[in-house]
Amino acid sequence: MTERKVEEARADRDVTREELAETLDALGQKLDVRTRAGEKVDATIDRAAEQVEKTVSAPAAEKVRAGAEAVRNNPLPLFAAVFGGVVVLRFLLRRRHAHRKQGGAC
Q1: What parts of the sequence cross the membrane (predicted)?
Q2: Would you kindly state where each structural domain of the chain is located, as residue ranges?
């Protein structure tokens, strides 16, 4: 192999490495579900606050943003409330189903 071909091969290798690194970075960003979900939540909160501001007032919109920020910083209470609601709803539906099986007599 001539010296020129060796240099061309090295240059081609370097370009390929750079392209591969860019591709891997792009894939990493697409697969970072937590960050993408956070960005989606932020956008949704901003839209909701804008709607509140249009219909009510700027201070009310700021309260929506502050509440959303509090939930974002500590989602456990919201998760617990939703989970509790699901458990209660499931209990009520089972109870209702059992009641119907008995012919409506309680």
Answers
A1: 76-93
A2: 3-74, 75-106
Asked if 49 and 65 touch (Cβ cutoff 8 Å), the reply is yes
pLDDT given at position 16: 93
Write out pLDDT tens, residues 36-72: 877 887 788 778 778 877 887 778 778 877 887 787 7
DSSP 12-76: HHHHHHHHHHHHHHHHHHHH-HHHHHHHHHHHHHHHHHHHHHHHS-HHHHHHHHHHHHHHHH--H
Are 65 and 52 within 8 A, CB to CB?
Answer: no
Whole-angstrom CA distances from 37 to 30, 68, 69, 82, 94 are 11, 14, 15, 18, 33
In this predicted model, what pLDDT tens digit does every residue of 81-103 receive, in sequence order?
888 999 999 999 888 888 787 77
Q: Token pair for residue 61?
A: 């919109």
